Amino acid sequence: MENRNLISGEWRGALDGSTFGVCDAATGREIARVPHCHEMEALEAVEGAANALGAWRSRSLEERAQFLRAIAAALRSHEDQFAHVITAENGKPLSEGRGEVAYSADYFSSAADEALQLHAINIRSRSELRVLRAHPEPIGVVAAITPWNFPLAMMARKTAPALAAGCTQVIKPAELTPLTALLFARVLADLGLPPGVVNVVTGDPAAIGQAWLDDGRVRKLSFTGSTRVGRLLMRGAAEQVVRLSLELGGHAPFIVLRDANVAAAVDAAVAGKFRAAGQTCVCPNRFLIADEIHDEFVERFVTAARLLPVGRGLDLATRVGPLISDEAVARMRRHIDDALAKGATLRTGGSTIAVEGCVDRFFAPTVVTEASSRMVCFQEETFGPLAPIARFHDESHAIQIANETPFGLAAYVFSEDSTRLAAVSEAVNCGIVGANTGIISDAYAPFGGRGWSGFGREGGRWGIEEYLSWKYVCTGVHG
Ligand code: NAD
Question: What are φ and ψ of residue 367, in 5° steps?
Fold first, then answer.
């Protein structure tokens, strides 16, 4: 497997030859070493992207769309290989790894469709003495910094629209999951993507990120990750006035109204909460259940949570894999202990499960009831398989609790009454609503948050807009 970086079309190591280890998330054993790059390599990648920009942006829309379609097809045909790499370094079940590959390919298909729409637009002028036109131009060289929880999809969301818009790109994947990014780079190179159009650099996050923000040629940074790092990057982007898209942390409420289909809501809760062992930014983090159906929901949900097989991602029966780090396990424990100390009741889970030959990071799906806003789990993103449940008496109270947070990424609402479903969907303060569903991502829709969850959208035409700078040309008409 390719472990070197792709810079200006060349496979390279760090200038000083240093590397860092990548571990199997389930066993903790080192499976590869990749270059530990710093500022110099980061700037060489920018140089490569800057050199490639002129030719790439001059390609016809159809040519760019053809490349995007070819990338989508290549991802689909390499699904098995990608899924195994994702499962190895991230730990998620193989079926979820496969789902991530298909989802990533959709971003390239969607961007190919949208690329064909990038024409100049005539604007109606009130004056006959002027002709107005707006031209969609690529921003230029763009950077992407991505997290470990979706090693392929978070990159696909950034690379697909960037290439569609005519931008060239430098990417830094997360240190925990760089192998998927390097496989992606290999696939792009094998497809004949011109040198420098996409560059992948692994290594010191702060040094690479700051080098890109300070350089002046990087005109946009798209970041997915924690709110803490998002803030740092926002400060760093000020000097060169670098445009930003920030997809940050979430804290999604999951609201079930009294007239909901409880069985369907439970299915959605299980799928949304325990996918990726609760390590997605849109995982429900706070469950708000109407009094009338609370006990039935809890009983069904706890029964379903207990039945989820926990184990290695490579084991085909597994539904819940390991957490990514010891810190993630410690955070789960801290949130559970705090909730129990403040009056919550543990219904299932609460500790790790031993898996032979593996690290002690397999946390049992955990449900606590009698949760409240005083508890840390109702104030912070847990990013793990903990479902804290509170009951509510009236809808307005549920909406008030749901909106009691500076985060605003996703929310879920369940009701069989379409009017109430629509009203609560409108009242929750966030960027994405799952109405009677727990699975909301779609490559053709605008994904993104508000407040501390960031800004900017990924997917469909909204995703491409983030990589465009519209030029307005006003032409005078004489005589
Ligand atoms: P993180 O912020 O620690 O790391 C994300 C990326 O930032 C990694 O590539 C890391 O190397 C890099 N990084 C770290 N410090 C940096 C620095 N000083 N300068 C430049 N880059 C730096 O986040 P994480 O732990 O990898 O991911 C989990 C977080 O991501 C959660 O909060 C989750 O909600 C969020 N997330 C959000 C979305 C979304 O679409 N909103 C999607 C997935 C994950």
Answer: -125, 130
Residue spans in the chain of domains classed CATH 3.40.605.10: 5-248+453-474
Over range 278-301, report the average pLDDT. Answer: 98
For residue 145, the CA-to-ligand 1 centroid distance in Å is 8
468 neighbors 448 (Cβ within 8 angstroms): no
Classified by CATH at the fold level, domain 252-444 comes out as: Aldehyde Dehydrogenase; Chain A, domain 2 (3.40.309)
2 pLDDT above the threshold of 80: no
Dist. CA 409 → ligand 1 center (Å): 15
Q: What is the pTM of this model?
A: 0.97
Beta bridge partners of 475: 131
Residue bearing the CA closest to ligand 1, atom 10: 174
Instruction: Enumerate the CATH 3.40.309.10 domain ranges in the chain, comma separated.
Output: 252-444
Please tell me the distance between residue 51's alpha carbon and the centre of ligand 1 in angstroms: 29
* 3-state SS track over 431-466: CEEEECCCCCCCCCCCECCEECCEECCECHHHHHHC
Give residue-wise pLDDT tens across range 7-45: 999 999 999 999 999 999 999 999 999 999 999 999 999
Ligand 1: which residue has its CA nearest to atom 26?
Answer: 147
The set of residues, in sequence order, having a beta carbon less than 8 Å from that of 153 and lying 6+ positions away, is 100, 103, 104, 107
CA of 174 to the centre of ligand 1 (A): 8
Q: Produce one character per residue of 164-201: b if its CB has 16 or more CB atoms within 10 Å, e if not.
A: bbbbbbbbbbbbbbbbbbbbbbbbbbeeebbebbbbbb
Which residue from 147, 45, 118 is spatially nearest to 454, judged by alpha carbons? 147
Q: What is the pLDDT of residues 355-374, one digit of tens each?
A: 999 999 999 999 999 999 99
Give me ligand 1 centre to Cα 456, in Å: 16
Ligand 1 pocket, mutate which of 146, 149, 283 (most atoms under 8 A from CB): 149
Per the CB < 8 A criterion, the answer to whether 212 and 143 are in contact is: yes
Nearest CA to ligand 1 atom 22: 205
CA distance 355 to 360: 8
Burial zone of 64 (CB within 10 Å; 0-12 exposed, 13-18 middle, 19+ buried): buried
C-beta neighbour count of 137 within 10 angstroms: 17
- Name which residue sits closest to atom 39 of ligand 1, judged by CA: 247
The C-alpha atoms of residue 243 and residue 222 are separated, in whole angstroms, by 8
CATH architecture of 5-248+453-474: 3-Layer(aba) Sandwich (3.40)
User: How far is the C-alpha of 5 from the C-alpha of 226, rounded, in Å?
Assistant: 24
Q: Which residues are catalytic?
A: 247, 281
Provide residues with CB under 6 Å of ligand 1: 145-149, 154, 172, 174-175, 205-206, 209, 224-226, 229, 232-233, 247-250, 281, 381, 383, 409, 449, 453
